[in-house]
Write a structure and sequence with these properties.
The complex is a heterotetramer, with two copies of chain A (about 300 residues) and two copies of chain B (about 290 residues). Chain A has about 300 residues and is α/β, with parallel strands linked by helices. Helices cover about 35% and strands about 20% of the residues of chain A. In chain A, the strands form three sheets. In chain A, strands 1, 2, 3, 6, 10, 11, 12, 13 and 14 form a nine-stranded mixed β-sheet that branches. Chain A has a three-stranded antiparallel β-sheet with strand order 7-9-8. Chain A starts with 13 loop residues before the first helix and ends in a 19-residue tail after the last helix.
């Protein structure tokens, strides 16, 4: 985001955050690389029936398949068009292969190319070079991938342009009320995607006191000045996971494949599980305690290091 | 004798001698002790075992989704416990306590030696030249080792929309070499030329004159349900290096999409040991996620 | 570094590490941005009388002034030619202003330009763009700073080339015997400088068990595969500091200014404190317990987070 | 009355009303309550106080070495406790428990809101446009706001080798605006044109046609021992906006290296409050590191 933020608590509800910040036609990045995927926020976008979004996600995953089924998305900027371990995303395939029920415009990169677009966006660079694509058909498919001659004489190298979403939404383990956001485990493209965007919503497992964050400043990957809204959404990544909090619901990942293969079944799922629940707490309640208990993980403490205090 | 007798506590015998040629000798008795499995060559168990053997002598492995996950897990248990697993999610030096269901599984993170940013993983580790072998899946690999993971048919309106590059077209540029596991061996999976080149061979990259050429050797090995193809020359083509048990050379060449050359020293792939199969089924992929 | 490393412990002594890896005429990066400066390693280079080094350091600091006084350095690649808070580095100034006792070749960047050189080096990129230098005289002074036209139409932007030292030396709070290196507080250019180099020496306050490192993998900024040698050197950053371990010896920083102003005094200091001590432990012993006690910091724990374990 | 009486517990009165014009009114009594100091305009105490006032209304400050350290510390205590301190070392949202001796001091790290990589600090925070004001020292600032921190004389064999850019030429390109504090006000420190342009003004950058132009407005304010110069127009020149107490306009213009324009509304700089001076001496720079 750019511009100065008002000081003080940025904590609100997910309903209000989405109502205020997500507009039809926007370019929205929902990042989280197989971890901390902002499912709760995506589901709230479905509940509020936003339309014509350009969704940016390195790995579209089930979340994008669901947003597509629900009719929220007209364009997809991504680098992997399948579900991590569980095969095809059939709504995406229907759209692309058969234009059923409508075509889907896609803009395609490799993972590092997509990451470098966020990097260039966050750093306001006109382009970012990378070593990929020499000999690949990807630059022909995607004219945004271009070449630059090195001024040091080693020949041409491919570059990608900045990606600056209108809004980036990420999920993290914790943040303080001003938005200093800490995440660990796989950190994905969250930090550059946040800095690249005009506005940022952070959902977290837990809003913590500033003292908790400030005891370990190296864990803050997205500082408050880059965050507009903080929402506490426990379980907000389900069926994805939050390292140290709960595990991935791999059974759901397997269940989604047959659901998404049948468009009517997928629409019914959206109706029942998203429109049929008032919010993420209701979604989790519908999921049921036994299923949730099965996702719990045993503690594995990082241990504490010292930052030291100067003696008066 | 059974694998259990050989390894009574059920633990994997690590770094067993001469695994690569499919036989082993009991140090105490001097007798051959390895029971071989009869899983069919097209099975995931067979392919994963063959793939695991390719990791002998390789230090740092960039593992993709699917069969490569099985292969690297098996390799750490049977070939070399020091194979270092690197994943595009940023995990370096994974020590998973359970089989990873994908490259972003929490079990890869807990207890890992390092959890890097994706920029460090792709920029420093991969582009920096630290990956010895990249382990990729593919829909198509062609004569000179180009990989297609994007589309079957015309990309403007594809017959099949495949997953796309993911990290593959980044990995092929910078990993020292690439091993591909194919689940099919026919002219569709092994065409003379891919429908779409997601991840190019050095020969194809070289045609783009004036470009800084990638450091990687590209695809050096393709493991299929019929045999093993190798491409020893950086700019050369894939050749049939081995056929699996029960497969003829003619079957392997006849089912390629081009006039597949046969190496003079073409060999028969050693069968997996029963212990390899047991490990895959009973300890590694207990939920049969990849052993489909 | 490139190439595969042998598995197992890489722990050795500083004397052996420098004897084996530092050769006359090498390009050596000694990084640490006002924090974790590898003073002990630099002092050992002085003890072993290496010559004609090209030293790369964003902030040359007192360490480079000392290496210059001792006659180890003929060339300096840097982005700030003074001591952080305590004024001029007089040996550098004598060399540059009066060629006394010999000229010093310098190659000069801004901080981010120098950082981007390490980044490009670590990533084997032919160049890295940044937004600096438009209108500045720096590109005229330094022909390695060049311009590239953006292929997206926003005009030209300056770029810097990769910097790939023969050797990078960094200091950190801890590493395991294989070289998985964890640091916190100001992390400077250590990680890209290490990845950019052909060989890497890591000195640490403490060599710890692999389990300590693996309990908190997000703190590992330099993994074992990028490290050739690990040396345990407690107090190895003095008179710089190690966050959480000991504070900067600011009195020494102030003392150095008059010493370095008088070349004879500076030579005498090198003789007494470096050549006159067998190793860093002897240097610290000469410094004395009371002075060291004055640098101790009170604990300030980061707190522990959980990474979670999947339940069997 | 003394500062102690005004603030009996010795704590800084935060966000005191109308600090900027040097007077304040006690809300309870309606009387003017601020005791003013007579520290000379060239003193570090005076300059730091004037600099601190420049931070009113600014949210995020990129602080350099030296006097800026004093100024931002004082500003947080007297102008706005929510001024967010950003340092090139990667510190964001510092809450130092003691005065920082340099931009890499451990006290800036302990208790900070974030400790970013230098790539994130320079790339995301600075180039990303999040810095409202960059606070820099300089050896020379010229008519249009170019800064020299590199060399005096010919750079091939300089008379004086200055510290060089550090982060300055990065900061000037991307911070919204730059405030410079000069310890001298004479034609050497304020030349018509700098000996060497380390950190350029937008007017000088614009001369490099065909380049992506920096977003920052460049130097908008120069605080000297004689007065305050401002450059309200992005491509314009510095003008005399204020003179310090006891300094004439003629002294300020006569000691510049060019025909320094005087604003019609040229003002007299308000003196520091005794409380400002007390804070600087007794609570901020107790070791007199910068108050030399």
């Amino acid at each position: 985001m750019t511009g100065s933020k008002v000081t003080g608590s940025k904590v609100t509800t997910l309903r209000e955050a989405v109502a205020e910040h997500v507009r039809d036609g926007m370019t929205v990045a929902l990042e989280g690389f197989g971890h901390l995927i902002p499912f709760a926020a995506g589901h709230e976008i479905i509940r509020q029936r936003r339309r014509d979004l350009t969704v940016c996600r390195m790995t579209p995953d089930i979340l994008t398949d669901q947003l597509l089924v629900a009719g929220c998305v007209s364009r997809l900027v991504a680098s992997f068009f399948a579900s991590g371990s569980a095969g095809s995303l059939h709504e995406i395939r229907r759209r692309v292969e058969r234009h059923d029920p409508a075509p889907l415009e896609t803009e395609e990169y490799s993972h590092y190319g997509m990451y470098c677009r966020y990097e260039a966006g966050a750093k306001r660079l006109p382009f970012q070079p990378l070593l990929s694509y020499v000999g690949s058909d990807l630059p022909e498919l995607n004219p945004r991938i271009r070449a630059v001659e090195s001024p040091y004489g080693e020949g041409k190298v491919y570059v990608v342009p900045p990606l600056n979403p209108d809004l980036t939404i990420v999920h993290a383990q914790r943040a303080d009320p001003e938005g200093n956001t800490q995440l660990w485990g796989i950190t994905g493209a969250q930090a550059p995607a946040a800095y690249a965007a005009s506005a940022v919503i952070v959902t977290v497992e837990e809003v913590v006191e500033p003292e908790v964050v400030r005891a370990d400043p190296n864990r803050t990957l997205i500082p408050a000045h880059a965050v507009d809204v903080v929402v506490e959404v426990p379980g907000g990544s389900h069926p994805s996971y939050a390292q140290g909090c709960y595990d991935r619901d791999s059974a759901f990942y397997r269940e989604w494949t047959p659901i998404s293969r049948d468009r009517e079944a997928a629409l019914a799922w959206i109706d029942e599980w998203i429109h049929g629940t008032a919010d993420h707490a209701a979604y989790l309640a519908k999921l049921g305690r036994p299923r949730w208990d099965g996702l719990r993980v045993a503690p594995a403490p990082s241990g504490s290091v010292s930052y030291g205090r100067r003696k008066g | 004798m059974t694998a259990d007798a050989h390894s009574p506590d059920g633990a994997a015998p690590t770094a067993a001698p001469s695994v690569a040629d499919g036989t082993a000798t009991d140090r105490a008795t001097g007798r051959s002790t390895v029971a071989l499995s009869d899983v069919p060559p097209h099975s995931a168990e067979f392919l994963a075992t063959v793939a695991a053997r390719e990791l002998a002598g390789r230090r740092r492995v960039f593992a993709g989704v699917g069969l490569p996950t099985l292969a690297v897990d098996l390799a750490r248990r049977t070939i070399d416990p020091n194979v270092e697993l690197v994943y595009e999610s940023g995990v370096v030096g994974a020590h998973p306590e359970a089989m990873a269901e994908g490259i972003a599984d929490s079990v890869l993170v807990s207890g890992a030696e390092a959890m890097l940013s994706m920029d460090a993983l792709f920029g420093y580790v991969l582009q920096g030249g630290h990956v010895d072998v990249g382990f990729l899946g593919a829909a198509q690999v062609d004569r000179i080792g180009n990989i297609n993971t994007s589309v079957i048919g015309d990309w403007r309106r594809p017959e099949v929309r495949l997953p796309g590059s993911g990290g593959a077209s980044d990995i092929i540029a910078s990993a020292r070499e690439i091993v591909v596991v194919l689940r099919r061996h026919d002219p569709h999976a092994l065409p003379a030329e891919v429908d779409f080149c997601t991840s190019p061979s050095p020969a194809r990259a070289r045609r783009q004159e004036g470009f800084h050429q990638p450091a990687g050797a590209g695809v050096t090995t393709v493991i299929t349900p019929l045999g093993i193809l190798r491409r020893p020359d950086r700019y050369g083509e894939l050749e049939l290096a081995a056929v699996h048990p029960g497969v003829t050379v003619a079957e392997a060449t006849g089912n390629a999409g081009w006039d597949l050359r046969v190496r003079a020293d073409v060999a028969e792939t050693p069968r997996p040991r029963t212990e390899d199969v047991r490990l895959l089924r009973e300890e590694i992929d207990t939920v049969r996620l990849y052993l489909r």
